[in-house]
Amino acid sequence: SLTLDADSLSVVSRSRDESVAVTPLPKALRHPASAMLSVALGSIPELAGDWDRVLPVDASGMGAGLVAIYGVEAGTFLPRVRGVVVATSTETDPVALLDRLVPAVDGSVSSIRQRDGVVIAKREAMGLVGEAALLEGHAILALDDGSMDRFLDDRATAVPFAEGVEWSLRAKPAELRLAIRSASDSLGYKILGKSTRNSVRSLSRSLGWVEGARSATLERTRTAGEARVTCRVEW
Q1: pTM summary value
Q2: Parallel, antiparallel, or unpaired: how do β-strands 165-171 and 37-41 relate?
């Protein structure tokens, strides 16, 4: 079905699906409003190959969560992603989360700061910077020294998921496409695997269809033997 409003377009595709139901995303998770790309999943997968180099996070054992990207820098050798990984966690010490971001090697520098009652741990080593915090049962892992504050700033205007959603993707097409073009100029991008480069090119082409949009959201919901995928584009 297709619905056209004054400032949005929604397309819904339905199909029969008798597979085992998947637990919907936690209601506490929301898309950060200022992120150029946010992807929420039932579990944060372990990244392999080229993606592990672009998003240097140890995601093993992490539960439902999201990856939010605020920016992409070309970098000397690899595109450098500025963003956060958020996932359900039973951890009680944010310092213990730093090992998922930056190794504690000789010469590493660690520190603690607080913001609005949230304890934020930081570590710098080998040219890497990472910050970690715990908030409302979720681990927040920032890939740089600025994305943690952006994520916390976004809490007041975060965008909720539809009821019962299994996974959700929200993008700002123009910003994301521009970031992809910039990152494509780096030497590191050119030596990434062919399949990775093809995936990035396909995403860029798809974004071209909605480049003038304010946001584009893709979500999957499954209830009573029916799977529903909804695409909503807002101008």
Answers
A1: 0.87
A2: antiparallel
In the numeric block, the tokens 């039932």 are attached to: 42
Q: What is the DSSP string of 52-77?
A: HHHS----TT--SEEEEEEEEE--SS
How far is 185 from 129, CA to CA, in rounded Å? 23
Structure tokens at 160: 């909720």
User: What distance in Å separates the CA atoms of residue 183 and residue 70, rounded to the nearest whole number?
Assistant: 14
Asked if residue 53 lies in contact with residue 80, where contact means CB atoms within 8 angstroms, the answer is no
Rounded to 5 degrees, φ, ψ at 114 are -125, 145
Dihedral sign, Cα of residue 37, residue 40, residue 41, residue 45: positive
216 forms beta bridges with 171, 233
Compute the distance between CA of residue 46 and CA of residue 91 in angstroms, rounded to an integer.
18
Backbone dihedral region for residue 127 (phi beyond 0: left; psi -120 to 50: alpha; all else: beta): left
Q: Label residue 83 by pLDDT band (50, 70, 90).
A: very high
pLDDT higher than 60, residue 114 = yes
**Two tokens at 205?**
């082409």
CA distance 168 to 220: 7
Structure tokens at 222: 């499954």
Amino acid at 16: R
